[in-house]
Specification:
The complex is a heterodimer of chains A (83) and B (437). Chain A contains 3 helices and no strands. Helix content of chain A is 55%, strand content 0%. Chain B has 2 domains: 278 residues, Peroxisomal Thiolase, Chain A, domain 1; 150 residues, Peroxisomal Thiolase, Chain A, domain 1 (3-Layer(aba) Sandwich). In chain B, α3 runs parallel beside α6, α7 crosses α13 and α10 packs across α11. The chains are: A mainly alpha (83), B alpha+beta (437).
Chain lengths: 83, 437
């Protein structure tokens, strides 16, 4: 469930859906702002992942998200905490 | 000397066409844009008809992501403004999606500086009042349904910027780099007319040299049709024919038909327009704005508020009632509304009213609510430009209380001055005097 690859794939799927464009070459080290994802779109992606996975990520965990991997890590932590 | 206001561009998206030319030709031909509603279940609604925009391609104007963020009313507003600004010779500074050859025309590269476009225009002197009466009803419905189904964390962070009624004004300002005054004003069904009047006032007062002014609505959704229907305001098909439902001044009128669409006008100070070679299509010679201050939804029983707005508009224009050669009325096709309007017109024009040509644009495109006054004013501008009046349809039997010269077929005229008036829920009235350029 907390498989890092799966969360990365989930991010790509959700990001493509909310930003209406593909993200084929995204990796865990991709910098979110360099992907052209602005802050509101990022919150949209977080909200989608939260409701799909049934978790809530605290706002303090969202402060220092630089890379896609940073977000996947926080999501993984919440999933484990809930398990 | 007062700064005079001319119209240098017009744009429309409405149930009779997605541009001004198509719309105007269909209006002249007396065609109806009303049809049965097919977008949602109507079995429990009091009316199953509406006038919808057909075949509108938002991809010409916005990226898929932008189209998701903004509601349909904003899509239509932008499209109308693009057409009007193109005619006025004012170019965008931001490039629209690749497919948009129209909006992208003359555009600089994305991220280009906000340097004056279109021959040294001072963009800080150009503003935008592109308004809506109801806002993005579709976004409201979608996001509330989303919250109900998946909880409030699923509500889009774009909900608020997407639903705010000033979204179109902001979007148009960004696309064209307009740094003058811009906002949304709302007066229900008088919104479009009020936006034109207020923009003209802004130019007269020296707050701007150019204003993109107009209104739009795209609110034909399950719950709005339910709301208007439950208020007993909506018309139904006549003998199974939806095109006969909107029938201002006819004896069998029984309500209005919800319509959607947008109208945008580029208003400009006359000398400013002439100096840059922009061709005036008509003048906004006068305007008047008043309030019934009597009832939330019912028109004043004698039409007093509306009459006062017309008198103010004529006085401001310095035009006598005797000089008016055409009336484009509010004429929603409700029994009380049309009756009160005729009383208002009779107070202003006296017995001569019966000899002034009059035609109701709503008989063909339905009631565009916040967009109505704008698209109808564009029809008047076309009349002054082409010296042609469009007909009013569905007057099978003129209401004996409405002794009027209904234009029943396209009519050639020698027209110098015309009036357009609008009245909205809330008792808001606005009238315009328009003059041949």
């Amino acid at each position: 469930m907390t498989d890092k690859t799966n969360l990365l794939e989930m991010f790509k799927t959700v990001a493509a859906r909310v930003d209406r464009r593909e993200f084929p070459s995204v990796t865990a080290t991709s910098v979110i702002t360099e992907l052209g994802i602005d802050s509101l779109s990022m919150m949209q992606i977080v909200g989608e992942m939260e409701t799909e996975l049934g978790i809530m990520i605290p706002d303090e965990d969202l402060v220092e998200l630089i890379t896609v991997g940073d977000l996947c890590k926080k999501v993984g932590e919440r999933l484990e905490a809930g398990a | 000397m007062r700064r005079r206001v001319v119209v240098t561009g017009i744009g429309a998206v409405c149930p009779l066409g997605n541009d001004v030319d198509t719309t105007w030709q269909n209006l002249l031909a007396g065609r109806s844009g009303v049809d049965f509603i097919r977008d949602f279940p109507v079995d429990k609604l009091r009316s199953d008809i509406a006038a919808s925009v057909k075949g509108f391609d938002v991809g010409k104007y916005l990226s898929p992501k932008e189209a998701d963020i903004y509601g349909r009313v904003t899509h239509l507003s932008l499209a109308a403004a693009v057409e009007a600004l193109r005619e006025a010779g004012i170019a965008p500074i931001q490039r629209a999606p690749a497919a948009d050859h129209e909006a992208a025309e003359g555009a600089q590269a994305p991220g280009g500086s906000a340097a004056p476009a279109g021959g040294g225009l001072d963009l800080a002197r150009i503003g935008c009042l592109m308004s809506t009466g109801m806002g993005s009803v579709d976004i409201f419905e979608e996001q509330i349904a989303r919250s109900a189904a998946r909880g409030p964390r699923a509500v889009s962070p774009y909900f608020i910027p997407g639903v705010m009624p000033n979204g179109a004004a902001a979007l148009i300002a960004m696309r064209y780099g307009l740094m003058g005054p811009s906002y949304n004003l709302a007066s229900a069904c008088a919104t479009g007319t009020h936006s034109i009047a207020t923009s003209a006032l802004m130019i007269e007062a020296g707050e701007a040299d150019v204003m993109v002014a107009g209104g739009a609505e795209a609110a034909t959704r399950l719950n709005t049709v339910a709301g208007f229907g439950n208020a007993k305001a909506l018309a139904r098909a006549i003998d199974g024919d939806p095109t006969r439902a909107s029938r201002p001044f006819d004896r069998r009128r029984h309500g209005f038909v919800m319509g959607e669409g947008a109208g945008a006008l580029v208003l400009e100070e006359e000398q400013h327009a002439r100096a840059r070679g922009a061709k005036p299509l008509a003048l906004v010679a006068g305007f008047g704005m008043t309030t019934d201050a009597q009832h939330l939804t019912r028109p004043h029983s004698t039409g007093l508020g509306l009459a006062l707005s017309l008198e103010r508009a004529l006085a401001r224009a310095g035009v006598a009632p005797e000089a008016i050669g055409y009336i484009n009325p509010h004429a929603t096709s409700t029994p009380q509304g049309d009756a009160a309007e005729v009383l208002a017109l009779r107070r202003v024009f006296g017995e001569r009213l019966a000899r002034i040509p009059i035609s109701a644009t709503k008989s063909m495109i339905g009631h565009l609510l916040g967009g109505a006054g704008a698209v109808e004013t564009i029809a008047v501008v076309c009349s002054l430009r082409d010296q042609l009046l469009h007909p009013s349809i569905n007057v099978d039997e003129l209401d004996p209380d409405c002794s009027l010269d209904i234009v029943r077929e396209q009519r050639s005229v020698d027209l110098r001055h015309a009036v357009k008036c609008s009245a909205g829920f809330g008792g808001h009235n606005c009238a315009l005097v328009l003059e041949r350029a």
